[in-house]
Amino acid sequence: MKLQLSLRASDLKNAAGIGRGTSDPFAVVTHMDTTSTVLGKTETIKNTLDPDWAKVFVFDYELGTPMHVAVSLYDEVRKGENISMGSVLFDVGSLLGAYGNTKGKTIKRGGVVFARVGKFEENGTMRLKLKGIKLKNTEGFLRKSDPFFELKTREDSDGVGTSWDSVFRSKTVKDNLSPIWSDAVVSLGTLCHGNMDRPIKICVYDYESSGEHVLMGELETTVNNLVIAKEQEEDGALSLRKKGSESGKIVVLKADIYGVENLSDDMAAASVSDDGVRSSIKAKTPTFIEYISGGCELNLCVAIDFTGSNGDPRIPGTLHFRHADGSKNDYEKAISAIGSILEKYDSNQKFPVYGFGAKFSGVVRHCFQCGPIQEVDGVGGVLSAYQEVFRSGLIMSGPTVFTEVILTSAKKAADAQVAAEKEGKQAYSILLIITDGSVSDVNATAEALSAASESPLSIVIVGVGEADFNSMEFLDEAKSEGGRDIAQFVEFNAHSHSPQSLTSTTLQEIPNQLVEFFTSHDQFPNATVHANEDEIVVEAEEEEIDLSLDFGDDAEITVSGGEPFSRNVF
């Protein structure tokens, strides 16, 4: 799936120095990995400590693959080296799971960087060239305005209404009321979500060195209207308005559309007219990102195997043995790796933890609560509840039975969705089962999976230890009569070298499973949630990123130093 990242900052510390005015900030975004890669830089905004950059950054993202991006801020210096204004690190999964897909990070040197992610739609590109005619001067009699324009996309959000976000900012044309601006190249996915009849705005401003730019006029239009206006030349000039009065005109010199035929596989085909212009968008399948951006929460349930085949937990080398040095056993590694990904999408991070295969008071239990409370706090709470079981007087027993935890989790998932619907929201659950052996009753398990497929639930089963798991392959193939596949089985040992390998494999099917469930029940994503300023979580950055960037003469930026960034170990 493709995401787009947008950035802004507030209350930055001025780096220009005494008597040198206000900083001209820009940001560089770097994908942090064992080999870090610069994704690009924003435009520079002059004389402001509260920049709102129009540039967006597009990248690929997978649910099960942790991804971090560093945002490095600089004050642009014409002669000499750019001055660092600080840096912050964002976890992309945490951004997606945050309210409004937005988070803030404080900079140790002063200020806050805000990052927002959202779905990027691959719907081609527009090359736009605009000319202003008789723009109304805002500078008085002795001077002329210095106009630039912004392209803005409309965002509709429940509870907030309509907002207009800048996605492109042109260069300024000095002292000119009939400017011809340089070409604007902008993604149609970013500008109009791929719908060329979706309203967009063109806003023209008079540039002010103070950063308090003055609106000269604005107009609302669509991409299709821009294409039509190009064909009509000056006869099709668009009127700018300010306070109800005309304040000039905009002539479209160029509005060329490229790549509309190269839609990604998950996009429905669109109708294209004889002149190659896409006129409308047919109904399309929603995406995982649209559900998450609409406020759908992912709830995690964990079920742990306490059958006797795991061995005596007091003996080193057995699967439940707790190491004195604090290192994790395979159960704890699987819980930590998978749980740390999924907990970012659950606002309250309250998780039920179940056990199965143990005997209490002479009775074998195939679904029991781990720990003293029904729902624990986060992954740390799951690990504590897991360890609490060994102080409860259980006797590890058998056989290996999944059916009760599957049906219990399915009921809980259905109840969570009903509760969410009452609040106009959506909820989807993931059951993580960790086991050391094959199920004792394949048919009963298959029936339980079929029944559970009617609930908003996916099931991830991780096999630990050296058992022969060949008989578990039926889990990947088990489907309900309606065809919904909800289970994924993964052997831990095949991925024991890397938590990223484990999470990528175990979680790769969940986005499609979630979409399939909701669409099969005619439930579509809610409107994208936009967070108000007081609803955005702002976190403190513990330390600046150790990252050295080289700014080449050809505008290329490369990573030239710093410690390798890797969290890909258990």
TrEMBL record:
Keywords for this entry?
Repeat
Cross-referenced InterPro entries: C2_dom (IPR000008), C2_domain_sf (IPR035892), C2B_Copine (IPR037768), Copine (IPR045052), Copine_C (IPR010734), VWF_A (IPR002035), vWFA_dom_sf (IPR036465)
The record's GO CC annotations read: plasma membrane
The answer on whether this UniProt entry bears the keyword Repeat reads: yes
Where does the sequence pass through the membrane? none
> What's the superkingdom here?
Eukaryota
Q: Name one GO biological process term.
A: cellular response to calcium ion
The VWFA domain extends over 299-514
Any Pfam family matching the protein:
C2
Tell me where in this chain the C2 domain is found. Answer: 1-106, 109-236
Mention one GO molecular function: calcium-dependent phospholipid binding
Q: Which Gene3D superfamilies match?
A: C2 domain, von Willebrand factor, type A domain
Q: Which family does it belong to?
A: Belongs to the copine family.
**Database matches in PANTHER family:** C2 DOMAIN-CONTAINING PROTEIN (PTHR10857:SF106), COPINE (PTHR10857)
What name does this protein carry? C2 domain-containing protein
